[in-house]
Amino acid sequence: MDIHAHLLHGGARSLPADALEKLRRQAVAASESGLSHTYVARMYGISRKTVGNWVRDYQRRGEAALVPQRRGRRPGERLALDDSQQLAVLRTMSARLPDEAGLPHLLWTRRAVVELIHRDLGTALSPATVDQYFVRWGVRTKHLPPILPGDLPAPVPGVERIAVAWLCPRPLPEAEPLQVLLAVTGRGVLFFMAGERPFEPERLAEFRKRLGVQVSRSIRPFVRAWPDEHHELRPLLDS
Length: 239
Prior knowledge:
- By secondary structure, this protein is of the alpha+beta class.
- The chain folds into two domains: 3-66; 79-239, no CATH class.
- It has helices at 3-10, 17-32, 37-44, 48-61, 83-95, 110-121, 127-137, 201-215, and strands spanning 159-167, 179-184, 190-195, 218-225.
- The protein has a four-stranded mixed beta sheet.
- Strand 2 (179-184) and strand 3 (190-195) form a beta hairpin.
- It is elongated, with a radius of gyration of 21 Å.
- The protein starts with a helix and ends in a 14-residue tail after the last strand.
- Pfam families: HTH_29 (PF13551), HTH_33 (PF13592).
- It comes from Saccharopolyspora flava.
- Residues 105-140 form the Winged helix-turn helix domain.
- InterPro entries: Homeodomain-like_sf, Winged_HTH_dom.
């Protein structure tokens, strides 16, 4: 029985696991590309409610939401980018800033990485999917220390307070550790700069300057995480 016959007789739940996963991926990808849930439902012969549930689950859980519960999978087995492609992206980000790589951005963002992957690898991903790769690579704020009341600089009219962290993740087992300067605005917009060597004072100053231009307003960074071995450089971004 083909996929359309399964849908006609028993709905999406009656599909074999492989076919159901394929259908979920196609429906979510179509929705992420901008098509309405109604159009996607009609295109694949499923209900609009099912499309909405799949998309919301994917936005909440990422790749795990697309795979039906069955045998365990090896990490990365069903990722859109294999490890070699991820390494290529990481090497570009650590070697150059977006404008140096020919992209119209001053710092790396979700959108800038989406554009890099599409241009260099021919793969169209949504910002939500790229966010899943950020988690995989350790470019994230989830495990940073909580912000205590005394940590926030005093508010100043017209000045945006931005949390900053210097992280040292190892994005993949076969990759070298990265040095990452990461900034997050109060609205959750993420900017970062990456490199293979510790940042020099000039690079920290450049990050701060680019960050101010990118957000188009005066900024007041405050540090949430910083390597102890470079504590003397912290004041360059903690003021």
